Amino acid sequence: MKKKFLAVMMAITCTLSLAACGGDAPDEGSSAPGNSGTESKSESGTNEGGSAEEGNADGDSSGAASALPDSLENADLVIVWDTTEEAWNNTLQEDPDAFNLVWSTKAAFEEKYGGTVTVIGVGWGEQQGQVISMVNSGEVCDLAQAHDQNFPTYGAKHVVQDISKYVDLNDDFWFDSTTKAFTFGGVPYAVGADAAPVVISYNKTLFSQAGIKTPMEYFKEGNWNWDTFREAALALTGDTDGDGTNDVYGFGWWDSFYVQMLNANGIVGINYEAENGVGSNYTTTQATEAFTFLQDGYIKDKFIQIPDGDKFISDYKSGKLAMTCEYGFAAITAYECDYEIEWAPLPTGPSGETYDCGGSLTGFCIPATSKNPEGAAVFARMAYEMLHEWQNNTRIALYGQEQVDLMNTLSEHINFAPIGIEKYWDANWTIFSGLKDGIPVSTFATNADEQIKEGATVTLGE
User: Fold this and answer.
1) Of 1, 213, 217, 367, which is most buried with the most CB atoms under 10 A?
2) CB-based contacts of 420, cutoff 8 Å, min separation 6
3) pLDDT tens digit string along 325-363?
4) Half-sphere exposure at residue 97, Cβ-oriented, CA atoms within 13 angstroms
5) Rounded Cα distance, 68 and 388, in Å
6) In this structure, are residues 107 and 130 in contact, taking their beta carbons and an 8 Å threshold?
7) Residue 170, burial from CB neighbour count under 10 angstroms (0-12, 13-18, 19+)
8) What's the CA gap between 322 and 166, in Å, rounded?
9) Regarding the domain with residue range 198-359+421-460, which homologous superfamily does it belong to in the CATH classification?
10) Coil, strand, or helix at residue 200?
11) At 67, is the pLDDT very low, low, confident or very high (cuts 50, 70, 90)?
12) Rounded to an integer, what distance in angstroms lies between the CA atom of residue 108 and that of residue 359?
C-alpha cells in the first residue's frame, strides 16, 4: 500500500463539495483503507463524517446555541493548511456551494471579528515540515491540522500545546474520539467535531437475488456481527466458471482491512499508552480474534478476496463482489453501476461493542508559537459549527434523518490511532503477509509488534 494513498484520503476530510459521484450527493471519494493507507477517486473529494452526538434528533452536535463569543480582543491568526488559495478558488469555480473547513471559515471569521486570518497553504505531506520549521524558528503559527501522520511527533516533540488550556474538553460539542486519538503522554493536543466512519458498502441487488438478509437488516435486528458477516459472505462466494477457484466473493477491500476489524473489535493498532513507551496492540486477545477470523476468511473459508491493488473496485462494480468498505455516505454514492447499493456499520467483533468502527478523522491543534491561542480556539469552534450547518443542510435532504443520525453516531465511536512513526508500513506488510500466507498469528503479530516498537524508538528517540 503506497503512503500517498493515505494523504489523499485524509485531505478529503478537509474540503467538502456538493459535487459528488454522479452529481448525486457529497461523499468521501472512493475506497480508501482507513488509517493504514488510503486511496480515493479524487483529491478534491468530500467528507461525510458525522457531526452529531448520539441521540441528538436534529443531527447537530453543536447544541441549540453557538458558544462563539460576540467579540475578540485579538482576531489576527496565522494558520497552516493543506489547501492553497488558488486551489480553493478553483474549487469554488467548479462548485460555488463547496465548503472548506478553513477557507470558508476565514471569510466568516474576519467578517464577525475583524482582524486578518493569514492562511499558509501547503501540500498535505508538507504540513508537518512547515509547522515544525515555523515553531523551531519562532515564527507565529496559531492553528494547524492534526492528522494521522504528524502525530505523535507534534505532541512528543512539544510542537503543539495542551489544547485543554484553551478548549473545554468536557463540552459535548467536541468528539472524544478525536481528542483521544491525539493525546500523547496523557496530554490532549487536538480537538475536532467531524469524522468519516468506515462502513460496509453492499450490493443489495445480489443479496435480494440470493434471498439473503442484508447487513442493514441484520444490524437493525441487533445481530450484525462477525458470525453473520461470515455467513452472508460465504453464501455469496463461489466458483462460477468451474475452474476450481472462486471468482465471486462475499467481501473484498484493501490489504489493511485488518485495521478496521481491530477497530470493530474495540481496539486500535498502535498503543501510545504502553507501559514501556509506544507499542502495539497486535498481541492482545482482541487482535488475535481479528487476525484469526481474517486468516480463516482469506485462506480457509475463502470468502474474502485476496487483495490485488484496487481490483476490488472493478469487481464490485461488475457484481463479482457482494460487500466492500467505504467512508461514510460514499458507500452509496461512489460506485456507478447497475446495482442497488446500500450501507451498514461494520460488523461488531466478539470483544467489541455496537457502533465500534474505524474511520478517518482530523482535528485542530495550537502550535507552541501561537500568539493568539484564544482566537485560534474560537476559529476552530466556528469552523465546525459552520461545517455542521452545511452538512445538515445537504445530507438530511439526500439521505434522510435516520441514516444521517446513524452515521453521526458512528462518527462518535471511531477507534483511531495516528501512524506517524517509522516502520509502520513494514508492520502493515508483516501482518497482511501473515494473514494471506497462513503464518501463525502469534508469529506475525509478535514480529509486527517489534517493528512498531523499533519504529517508535527511531521517530521519538526513545
Assistant:
1) 367
2) 128, 148, 149, 150, 151, 152, 153, 459
3) 999 999 998 988 899 999 999 999 999 999 999 999 999
4) 13
5) 14
6) no
7) exposed
8) 47
9) Periplasmic binding protein-like II (3.40.190.10)
10) strand
11) confident
12) 29
Handedness of CA 347, 353, 358, 362 (dihedral sign): positive
Helical H runs in 144-213? 153-156, 176-181, 204-210
Domain segments of the chain as ranges: 60-195+361-411, 198-359+421-460
State how beta strands 144-146 and 363-365 pair: antiparallel
H or E element that contains 255: none
Best CA proximity match to 285, nearest among 441, 424, 402: 441
How far is Cα 47 from Cα 29, in angstroms, rounded to an integer?
A: 8
- Mutual orientation of helices 373-399 and 401-411 as an angle, nearest 10°? 140
CB 40 within 8 A of CB 70: no
Whole-angstrom Cα distance, residue 82 to residue 144?
9
pTM of the model as a whole: 0.85
Identify which of 237, 230, 234, 235 has the alpha carbon closest to the alpha carbon of residue 261.
230
Query: Rounded CA gap, 353 and 359, in Å?
Result: 16
**Burial degree of 207 (CB within 10 A; 0-12, 13-18, 19+):** buried
Residues 6+ apart with CB under 8 A from 330: 21, 27, 28, 29, 30, 45, 48, 201
Among the residue ranges 33-37, 61-65, 71-75, the one predicted with the least confidence is: 33-37
Q: Strand 359-360 to strand 196-203: parallel, antiparallel, or no bridges (unpaired)? A: antiparallel
- Amino acid in position 278: V
Q: Are 51 and 405 in contact (CB under 8 A)?
A: no
For residue 90, the SS3 value is: helix
State the pLDDT confidence band at 40, using cuts at 50, 70 and 90.
Answer: very low
Is CATH 3.40.190.10 the right assignment for the domain spanning 60-195+361-411?
yes
* Residue with cell string 461493542: 353
Kindly state the cell numbers that stand for 307: 487483495
Q: pLDDT digit string (tens) for 418-458?
A: 999 999 999 999 999 999 999 999 999 999 999 999 999 99
Nearest CA to 198 out of 404, 24, 343, 42 is that of 343
Percent over 90 (pLDDT), the chain: 77
Please report, in angstroms and rounded to a whole number, the separation of the first and last CA atoms in the chain. Answer: 27
- The rounded distance, in Å, linking the Cα atoms of 160 and 367 is 4
Domain 60-195+361-411 matches domain 198-359+421-460 at the CATH topology level: yes
Q: Which pLDDT band holds residue 2 (cuts at 50, 70, 90)?
A: very low
Asked if the peptide bond before residue 373 counts as cis, ω within 30 degrees of 0, the response is no
